[in-house]
Design goal:
The protein is built from 20 helices and 15 strands. The protein is an alpha/beta fold. Among the domains are: 91 residues, Gyrase A, domain 2; 116 residues, Isoleucyl-tRNA Synthetase, Domain 1 (Orthogonal Bundle). A 5-stranded parallel β-sheet has the order 7-6-5-11-12, sandwiched between helices. A 4-stranded antiparallel β-sheet has the order 1-2-4-3. Strands 8-9-10 form a 3-stranded antiparallel β-sheet. The two termini are 45 Å apart. The relative contact order is 0.11. It binds one RNA strand of 76 nucleotides through α2, α6, β9, β10 and α11.
Amino acid sequence: MLVRDTISAAISNALERAHQDGALNVDSVPSIEVERPNNPEHGDFATNLPLRLARAARSNPLHLAEVIAARVPTGPEIASVTPAAPGFINFRLNDHWLQDQVEAVRAAGDSFGASDFGAARKIMVEFVSVNPTGPVHVGHARGAVLGSALANALHAAGYAVTREYYVNDAGSQMEAFYRSVWARYRQALGQPADLPDNGYHGDYIAGIAADIIAADGRRYLDMDDPAAIRAIGDVAREKMVALIRDDLDAIGVRFDNWFSERQLFRDADYDRAMARLRQGGHLAERSGALWFNSTALGDDRDNVVVRSSGEPTYFASDIAYHFNKFYGRSFERVIDIWGADHQGHVPRMKAAVAAMDIAPENLTVLISQMVTLKRGAETVRASKRTGDFVTLRELVDEVGLDACRYFFLARAASTQMEFDLELATKESSENPVYYVQYAHARNASILKLAADRAIDYAAGDVRLLDSPHELTLIRTMLRLPELIVQVAENLEPHHLPHYAMELATAFHHFYENCRVISANPDDNALTLARLKLVAAAQIAFHRTLTLMGMTAPDRMERT
RNA sequence: GUCCCAGUAGCUCAGUGGAUAGAGCGGUUGCCUUCUAAGCAACUGGCCGCGGGUUCGAAUCCUGCCUGGGACGCCA
């Protein structure tokens, strides 16, 4: 149980008691909010309940704060409960309790920060899902990093998470991709061939064609065109998906499942979803096409699901896909992470989900906004159509996985951001990535020295950790569990890097002010206690960096 | 024209109903005999885009305007 919840419960009891005593007279009590005050002088936690209760209680808020505070007992966790003007109640944690948490963190190890907030509910995070017609573009890197970190946090917060990539392997874009590979294949073998009008121009197409020639030779030339395109398309698609998988792996993004769009048609999810919409009266035929009446459900216009050619649209398969997520695979909650260019698609998807009798709040679409790449003051162009686009792979090669992930994570998903390649590349104090990792490395080198000297600190007494820097470090470590819940609840992974900075600051301050392994034998007891704190901090750093998908280096050298 | 996102320190961004608005970078100045100076300490720097409203209390909520980016297809 989080301390925050303990305090919340204690306030609730106090209200009850005040009621019984006749000291408080209200009909209804607003929800109890316990927050972290900005100013450390106000303690570890605070509530503004008296301020919000004052009107209903027809009383002065400060007086109410006194009435309630007097009825909140102190205890093992809470050292003091103080009313404060104009009507807050401030709570300070007990130093002994804080010190004891060092042992608790060490005992928790890699499960430190985990909670059962999610109650093992089935949740899917679907992200990236780039069409397998080309390598992953830098524009998708942000969504990839956000999705993977969010999934990590949801897992730590107790959800049963599935990370999924939706492979759009049906539809007209794929057809253009197949034909492009076919054309390059023929050209490479000296046959006349033109890229289709909507074809893909990137060099990677020729690369795939060359790979196919190396493996299969000229044999596709013996087939008639439609058969050859189908056969070579199958091979090319698998190669492309494998390339995408490798690209994403390079930025530390891995999936539990790669879901094929074509499966929706094979397994009749498409038929079932359309039948359901038809039953609900949500489909209508008009000018030869089949339309989804999304206007009736709040969208600003209707949308075609089956073209007059009889081909289903992308929207239709997305409806079937969400039918599959909720009904086929019983996910209680689904989070889709889409690029900014899909924002217009959100209202109709929400409408379609509602039309299939799925509570719309169970589908959350996060839009990962545009990223402007810069190199110092200069804007870096990244254009897919021209063929010379900046790929995710190029970005990782230039900047490195850790800096990439850190910078993408540090910004709220819903806001457009600038990514400065120059700043992210600099391996210097200018780069906050190294500030965090350096704290972990300093931490590791203390533990290594202790190990080299065979210092056994198992008997260390954590109650000796009573300096402000030690207690601040403990306090900061202990915020991780509630931070993870916050990230999971609000779907805001950008809090992680900011927390990591604060944890690193607390550690660096401790490091500067509290010599851990002392040369003086008189300090032996304190050395053992501090080693326990360092071991606990190591866990907190490791957990934080792992959640962000970053590496936690034991050594860092200037080059 | 409609819809979405944003406007906070010189730059990049946190803070989204509370108490004195923060961080990193930049700029100025100090600190390495002792677990790594990729660190620490100090200073510098703000009509929180503008106007109105709601509230005991607004950077945060509502509304109008201004500025920038994006989306509006029987493409995906």
